[in-house]
Amino acid sequence: MVWPPSQLSKELYLAKSSAHRLILSLVARNFIIQDTENERYQLSIKFVNL
Predict the structure, then answer these.
(1) Which pTM value belongs to this model?
(2) Chain centroid to CA 15: how far?
(3) pLDDT digit string (tens) for 1-50?
(4) Which of 15, 21, 41, 50 is the most buried if burial means most Cβ atoms within 10 Å?
């Protein structure tokens, strides 16, 4: 699955700013990765292996 940041904020019932901070934290820890072409995010192998 691949999500744009706005969809993640809606799905998680978070303000866009809170969702953005959460996304940045998860990216920094390699739990999600960003597709640089379309600016969407997807789960990484590290997250799936949890």
Answers:
(1) 0.77
(2) 14
(3) 778 888 889 988 999 999 989 989 999 999 999 888 888 888 899 988 88
(4) 41
Cα distances (angstroms) measured from residue 5 to each of 35, 42, 49, 50: 12, 11, 23, 23
d(CA 13, CA 33): 21
Q: Is 32 helix (H, G, I), strand (E, B) or coil?
A: strand
Please state the domain count of the chain: 1
40-43 and 32-35: which strand pairing? Answer: antiparallel
Three-class SS of residue 5? helix
Host domain of residue 16: 5-48
